[in-house]
Design brief:
478 residues, mainly alpha, Citrate Synthase, domain 1, Cytochrome p450-Terp, domain 2, 3-stranded antiparallel sheet, two-stranded antiparallel ribbon, globular, disordered N terminus, binds coenzyme A
Length: 478
């Protein structure tokens, strides 16, 4: 479809949006069914609590972890590796984290891309095919990607622009699921067909995310509707920026930083929540669209990819409540209140800190922090950068001293990603979708690996700890 800029919301679509708003009742809108609902909610509270001691009694690997927080071994992969310990004289010593894609350290991968534009695309090739591309085959790969990076006008109008919402992860899921019906061979799980579907989704997801954002801005915020086509010859990062910005302009540094962010988010082993979801769902033999939609749902969670949004909200909260950004005592007092569940979202979590695997440092955070500093210097935001740095230091100290930490705590990739995206002018609605745009490369590689190697449906055990009781007829129940 041709690039277009429309002003004012289309009446038919707006009516549709209003209907969608009335479709679901919030708790405060339940009216005369609310008291019955409250009763049911009270019953739920009474009957769904499991004695926490039973988890210890039965040695349940909660979160599929052992008592030290280490993940239970559930699979093998060659796609990526995370190193958080060095083996010294047979002893595991915590070390600075290292991340490898198909055996290559991401630090070296990024260094090797110096002066080139297609870092994320090369990373995707590496993850999918297991090795770095030679020049000629990389051109073939880019050629296929460019051929697939399109969304028809009907799909944009009939699917992307419907039921827009500020949380675009839901829009991504919906669009991915709907693409199933646009595929003539959706259920064919041969490696060749899954590769085709994967490349379709990898190349279409940036368009879906950006168009969903523009639809949200238009239909919910009454802004101009901007739908710009991707340009052939541009990298994913460049296309995201040119499709996103009303004037389509961006600087080389901006595209470079976004490209690096995409590379750093592209994969993270088989055990991270959304990739494990890929394995679980793929093992049932279901289609690619169902698998990717499920992984997007997992990534949305604030303990996973959604943490980057939470970090941003937390920093908005910190900026609003800490009067002197250089006063470490004031910062510590406020962070302590977060840990004590007294302020912010009441979860007791300082977002962007802690990781299920890394010990001393998360290499992705180290690289992004470096770029955050460079960008901050260029954009006159060193005061904010210094504040982030202070919060990072103090939060790590507080969490280490107050939580049951077995392996060390460090800031994770999400700590600086939102700050970087903010400096790139990327709206917060797109923070987690950007993670999905990158991670779908990893999900695809893992799905292909699962399909080509494993032939066992994932099916762990749950111990029943309830009682078996007699069925009582309705009229005899007390
Ligand atoms: C990522 C995360 C879920 C890992 O959790 P985990 O694997 O249980 O990590 P650990 O084993 O080191 O945690 C040990 C304890 O410290 C707590 N902890 C870890 N990170 C914390 C944080 N940022 N704030 C407060 N408490 C934290 C955990 O809740 C756990 O407490 P518990 O024993 O009472 O359950 C956790 O660090 C977290 O929720 N961080 C904030 C969200 C975030 O940034 N997520 C993005 C991850 S890339």
């Amino acid at each position: 479809m041709a690039g277009s800029v429309l002003h004012g919301a289309d009446a038919a679509v707006q009516e549709d949006e209003t209907m969608a708003e009335n479709e679901m009742l919030s708790l405060s809108e339940m009216g005369d069914i609310k008291s019955d609902f409250d009763y049911l909610s009270g019953e739920l509270e009474k009957n769904h609590r499991i004695d926490q001691n039973l988890y210890l009694d039965y040695d349940v690997k909660r979160g599929l972890r052992d008592a030290n927080g280490k993940g239970v071994l559930t699979g093998l992969t060659e796609v990526s590796d995370i190193v958080q310990y060095d083996l010294v004289d047979g002893m595991q010593i915590p070390c600075d984290g290292r991340l490898y894609y198909q055996g290559i350290n991401v630090v070296d991968l990024i260094r090797g891309l110096e002066g080139r534009r297609f870092g994320f695309e090369e990373t995707t090739f590496l993850l999918l095919f297991g090795r770095l591309p030679k020049e000629e085959e990389f051109h073939r790969f880019l050629n296929v990607c460019e051929g697939l990076a399109e969304l028809g006008a009907r799909f944009v109008r009939d699917v992307v622009m419907k039921a827009s919402n500020g949380n675009l992860m839901n829009a991504l899921q919906r669009c991915v699921l709907t693409l199933y019906t646009y595929d003539d061979d959706p259920d064919n799980c041969s490696a060749e067909n899954v590769l085709r579907q994967s490349m379709e989704l990898i190349t279409k997801l940036p368009l879906i995310a950006v168009y969903s954002y523009h639809s949200y801005l238009h239909f919910r915020k009454d802004e101009a509707l901007v739908i710009r086509n991707p340009k052939k010859g541009l990298s994913t990062a460049e296309n995201i920026l040119q499709m996103l910005r009303p004037d389509g302009a961006y600087t080389e540094l901006e595209a470079k930083v976004l490209d690096i962010a995409l590379i750093l988010h592209a994969d993270h082993g088989g055990g991270n929540n959304s990739t494990f979801t890929t394995h679980v769902v793929s093992s049932s033999g279901t289609d690619t669209y169902s698998s990717v939609a499920a992984s997007i749902g997992s990534l949305k969670g604030p303990r996973h990819g959604g943490a980057n949004l939470k970090v941003q909200e937390m920093f908005d909260n910190l900026f609003a409540n800490i009067s002197d950004l250089e006063n470490e005592d004031e910062i510590e007092t406020y962070l302590q209140k977060i840990l004590d569940k007294k302020v912010f979202d009441g979860s007791g979590l300082i977002y962007g800190v802690g990781h299920a695997v890394y010990t001393l440092s998360d290499p992705r955070e180290v690289i992004l922090k470096d770029y955050a500093k460079k960008l901050a210097a260029e954009k006159g935001m060193m005061r904010e950068f210094a504040f982030y740095d202070r919060v990072e230091r103090i939060a790590i100290r507080l969490i280490t001293s107050q939580r049951r930490i077995h392996k060390g705590v460090c800031a994770n990739v999400d700590f600086y990603s939102g700050f970087v995206y903010g400096m790139l002018g990327i709206p917060k609605e797109l923070f987690t979708p950007l993670f999905a745009i990158a991670r779908i490369s990893g999900w695809s590689a893992h799905r292909l690996e699962e399909i080509m190697n494993d032939d066992k449906i994932v099916r762990p055990a749950f111990k029943y700890v309830g009682r078996h009781v007699e069925y009582v007829p309705m009229e005899e129940r007390v």
